[in-house]
Amino acid sequence: MGPAWRTALLASAEPGGRVRCGLCPFGCVLAEGRTGPCRVRRNRAGTLETATFTAAVAHLDAVERKPFYHLSPGAKVLTVAGPGCTFACGYCVNHRLSQYGREDTAPWIGTPALPGDLAARARADGAMLGLSYSEPSLAPELTLALAEHGLPIVWKSNGFLTPQAIDLVAPVLTAVNIDVKAADSRAHRALTGAPLEPVLESIAGFRAAGVWVEVSTPLIPGVSASPGQLEAMATTLADLSPDLPWHLLRFTPDFKMRRERPTPPEDLASAREIGRKAGLRYVYVERALGAEGRRTLCPGCGSTLVERGIWETAGSRLDAGACPDCGTRVPGRWRVGT
Ligand code: SF4
């Protein structure tokens, strides 16, 4: 079964039956019958339509796996995903979903999403709702429909959306984890097919709108893994805020980059030091450095505040978001009700 198209938001009419899409910075003006490079928004008879009101996946997992480390430790997230992405990264571990329309290996999968059913399932599990695995910013319509059911919503996103799209979704989002995949636009464009600047602007835009933001960087060979790229990224992020949690993700060979090797633990340790030296207070490494890489330390006195197992929080000493030893506040949304 193919996509079930429905009317999209952020559309404006152009002369000659064309329609402008205001969702991502590509700003496509689509002629009648044309589909955007994301492959999930199209002009049909002068109406912009989306295919992303779809659930191909609905999976319950820990908030730490998104990853969010400063958001309701121990919370669960019912994560929903449909096909589609604005980027075409050669390393994508979810390429069978994200690269729909670009790759023969990514046929259409999924059925129309039922927001009420998804929310009821999340509520029964005491979970938030999340959009991840593919690109959630392509699904503002589904995000807003899910929000009508009153649960917190989180995204794991590439951050490639317009300020107008941020204005639309920020009021219903609790948190966003945004990937920063390169330090400069040339490298970012070579990897993703898109410029970097809108991603950095989205980090600032979501923060200004009151959404909790964490950042992830996969250490991609030849792109983000070099010390120079990491230093530049860390400096940029620290300039935005030294309190931005930065997750360094081990590269896993997949898709078009199967011949590369996984990131060695010593490179992840070096990357973490680069982040700390740049001034970032919370730099995390998911697995390769053991529990030490996942620990939150007090920036005031250095004591351990949050311990994490491989995928979940193991224990927290935070007292109303502050260090119990010296009283230093640690930024985050430590208790989000479901
Ligand atoms: S979301 Fe798709 S159709 Fe809209 S501007 Fe971006 S690539 Fe073009």
Describe it.
The chain is of the alpha/beta class. Helices cover about 20% and strands about 20% of the residues. The chain has helices spanning about 95-100, 115-125, 140-145, 165-170, 185-190, 195-210, 225-240, 265-275, and strands spanning about 5, 10-15, 20, 30, 40-45, 45-50, 55, 55-60, 75-80, 110, 125-130, 155, 175-180, 210-220, 245-250, 285, 295, 305-310, 315. The chain has an 8-stranded mixed sheet, covered by helices on one side. Strand 5 and strand 6 (about 45-50) form a beta hairpin. Helix 7 packs parallel to helix 8 (about 265-275). The protein is globular, with a radius of gyration of 20 Å. The two termini are about 35 Å apart. The site of iron/sulfur cluster has 12 residues, from loops. It comes from Actinomadura graeca. Its cofactor is [4Fe-4S] cluster. InterPro entries: Aldolase_TIM, AmmeMemoSam_rS, Organic_radical-activating, Pyrv-formate_lyase-activ_prd, rSAM, rSAM_sf. Keywords: 4Fe-4S, Iron, Iron-sulfur, Metal-binding, S-adenosyl-L-methionine.
Summarize the structure.
With about 350 residues, the protein is of the alpha/beta class. Helix content is about 20%, strand content about 20%.
Annotation, overall tally of beta strands: 19
Radius of gyration: 20 Å
N-end to C-end Cα span? 34 Å
**Beta-strand percentage range:** 15-25%
Mean pLDDT: 96
Bound molecules: iron/sulfur cluster
The ordered string of helix (H) and strand (E) elements is EEEEEEEEEHEHEHEHEHHEHEHEEEE
